[in-house]
Specification:
The structure is a single chain. The strands form eight sheets. A four-stranded mixed beta sheet has the order 25-26-2-27, covered by helices on one side. Strands 3-18-20-19 form a four-stranded mixed beta sheet. Strands 5-6-4-17 form a four-stranded mixed beta sheet, with helices on one face. A hairpin with a 2-residue loop joins strand 5 (69-73) and strand 6. It has 461 residues and is α/β, with parallel strands linked by helices. It folds into two domains: 7-26 and 247-452, Enolpyruvate transferase domain (UDP-n-acetylglucosamine1-carboxyvinyl-transferase, Chain); 28-234 and 241-245, Alpha-beta prism (UDP-n-acetylglucosamine1-carboxyvinyl-transferase, Chain).
Length: 461
């Protein structure tokens, strides 16, 4: 007899003012890189503040399957670095779960290894296109195969098979600004003969460059030209082993900060959160909407600035246009900003965010669907959307259907804090990146609780 998992819902009601000081789990993007780059060091790497969500667990499990010793205890981890040459073929496919970062960075890492690896993922990940990372890695000498489907014959989709080997450097201008794509090519470039030059149309987040320079990798970043050059000529091929600290995740904090700016009377502070300027667009966007956002840098970790952010309610927000560089620097936080726009005065426009269509869900469609369900006027375009805010008036409650997308689920929960009627959200989807989301909001005074739905079913074999 086996028990099936019991689904769990968040039940969210209209909330009183949010008050207090909190911290958030380690930055998901940096945690992926700390684990992967730690595996390439010349000894043991102690990681503090590791993200504890499902995506980072997928990266840790993949490294173990490749022969790397990874021990995780809460938010601390120990990775016994083996270097590029210490990686071993996996006896089974690597399960990347819901994590596009895991799959794309592993493609770059495995492109230079002399063995074949199969990369799989959950149903959401198998819908996400991988051609952008496969094409340049093929140009460098790797073989990467995947599948297509009738609806998208030009897209390369997981599962993927990566057959690595000897690589050569290339000069490439990326079709889009993408930290995942850039990071995959940096990992491949570190294993290639000759230089690899990577140029972007915009400046994507630069966590890989900062951490790898901290660990002694032979790369030069030129932010003004949006270019990274990797030249492993004469390099011994290993990174220095050292203790690393992961800042708090600003993408997770964004949902708390938005909640504080839209729930009347709120005043919260998030401590030890990452303040990397290539990631902090959400703070600038909220300020543009009239929010009270105060930041203080208190430390630096691996070249990453971190500090505290205070957000206060000062009245209804105003509509804004989010586009260009601001959209790029806040791309993962757009679902949270969409909630801010839904409660603002006037019509907000989100432009140049077409990448949202190929995230964990089609986020433009998901945002439009969930805001419309709440009685908010939304209009989609191919690369963006607009939102007519309520000016602080209460939206409708109801059931959020996030399509297994953690950021859509959290956005729905924050919107529910302003609804007179109850809002329900599948809580399992949130655990992908922010498993302590509910507890932190409850500690700040939010009106929400977990609820088990139904009973565990059993079946006889």
């Amino acid at each position: 007899m086996t028990d099936s998992p019991v689904p769990e819902l968040l039940r969210v009601g209209r909330s009183p003012a949010l008050k207090g000081v909190c911290s958030v789990p380690g930055d998901k993007s940096i945690s992926h890189r700390a684990l992967l780059f730690g595996a390439l060091c010349d000894g043991a790497v102690e990681i503090r503040g590791l993200g504890v969500g499902g995506d980072n667990a997928s990266t840790a499990a993949a490294l173990r399957a490749l022969g790397v010793e990874v021990e995780v205890s809460g938010s601390n981890a120990r990775v016994k670095g083996a270097g590029f040459d210490g990686l071993r073929p996996s006896e089974m496919a690597l399960d990347c779960g819901n994590s596009g970062t895991t799959m794309r960075l592993l493609c770059g890492l495995l492109a230079g290894r002399p063995f074949e690896t199969r990369l799989e993922g959950d149903p959401s990940l198998t819908r996400r296109p991988m051609g952008r990372v496969a094409t340049p890695l093929r140009q460098m000498g790797a073989r990467i195969e995947g599948r297509t489907d009738a609806s998208r014959p030009s897209a390369l989709l997981p599962p993927l098979v990566v057959e690595g080997g000897k690589l050569h450097g290339i000069d490439i201008v990326l079709p889009v600004a993408s930290a995942q794509l850039k990071s995959a090519l940096i990992l491949a470039g570190l294993q290639a003969s000759g230089k690899t030059s990577i140029e972007e149309p915009g400046l994507s987040r630069d966590h890989s460059e900062r951490i790898l320079r901290f660990l002694g990798a032979p790369l030069v970043a030129d932010p003004a030209r949006r270019r990274v050059v990797v030249d492993p000529t004469g390099w011994n091929g290993s990174l220095k082993a050292t203790a690393v600290e992961v800042p708090g995740d600003l993408s997770s904090a964004a949902f708390l900060l938005v909640a504080a700016t839209v729930v009347p009377g709120s005043d919260i502070t998030v401590e030890r959160v990452g303040l990397n300027p290539t990631r902090s667009g959400v703070l600038d966007a909220l300020r543009l909407m009239g929010a009270s956002i105060e930041t203080v840098q208190t430390a630096e970790a691996m070249g990453e600035p971190l500090g505290r952010v205070r957000a206060r309610y000062v009245g209804p927000l105003r509509a804004a246009r989010i586009d260009g560089d601001l959209a790029l620097r806040s791309i993962d936080e757009i679902p949270a900003l969409a909630v801010a726009a839904a409660l603002a005065e006037g019509r907000s426009e989100f432009c140049d965010v077409g990448e949202l269509r190929v995230k964990e869900s089609d986020r433009i469609t998901s945002i439009a669907r969930e805001l419309s369900r709440a009685g908010i006027e939304v209009a989609q375009t191919s690369a963006g959307f607009s939102v007519v805010g309520t000016g602080g008036r209460c939206p409708k409650g109801g059931t959020i259907e996030p399509d297994r997308d953690h950021r859509i689920a959290m956005a729905g929960a924050v919107l529910g804090l302003l609804c007179d009627d109850e809002t329900t959200v599948p809580s399992e989807d949130i655990a992908t990146s922010f498993p302590t989301f509910t507890e932190i909001l409850q500690a700040l005074g939010a009106n929400l609780r977990r609820d088990m739905v139904g009973r565990a079913a059993s079946s006889a074999s």
